[in-house]
Amino acid sequence: MAQARTDYGKVVAPRPFGGVEAEPHRIDIFKYLMICMILFTVVSVFHVWSRCNLIDLNLRISEATRQMKDAEEEQKRLKLEIASLKAPARIEMIAKDELDMALPTEQQVVLVK
Question: What counts of helices (H) and strands (E) characterise the chain?
Answer without folding.
Answer: 2, 0
